[in-house]
Write a structure and sequence with these properties.
four-stranded antiparallel β-sheet, globular
Length: about 100
């Protein structure tokens, strides 16, 4: 969900997780709470997720204004959501990238 304009200096990450057996409802609940919180984070530009057909794997994409926006989100995640999230799923891959766009003069 993108509600804010993309910036010239941005950071994003992609995370793939396996949903732990019997934890789909817990995963959906924590993801809902997490995404609702991200709507209010000034540094969050957008996010999205895709759950595979058998609901065992989720791909999560998050996009931040800059590395400080990502750091702010990660700090909040660690304090509020990490235990619930990690009880519901197991990360299998992670990718992050920081881009600085050059403006033409």
């Amino acid at each position: 969900m993108y509600k804010k304009p993309v910036q010239a200096d941005d950071t994003f990450w992609r995370l793939e997780v396996n949903i732990n057996p019997g934890k789909l409802d817990d995963f959906i609940a924590v993801a809902h709470d997490l995404f609702r919180t991200m709507d209010g984070e000034a540094g969050t530009l957008g996010y999205g997720d895709y759950l595979n057909d058998d609901k065992t794997v989720c791909h999560i994409h998050e996009h931040y204004r800059d590395s400080e926006g990502l750091k702010s989100h990660a700090d909040n995640f660690g304090k509020v959501f990490a235990m619930r999230f990690m009880a519901a799923c197991t990360p299998t891959s992670f990718f992050t990238e920081h881009r600085t766009l050059q403006r033409k003069r």
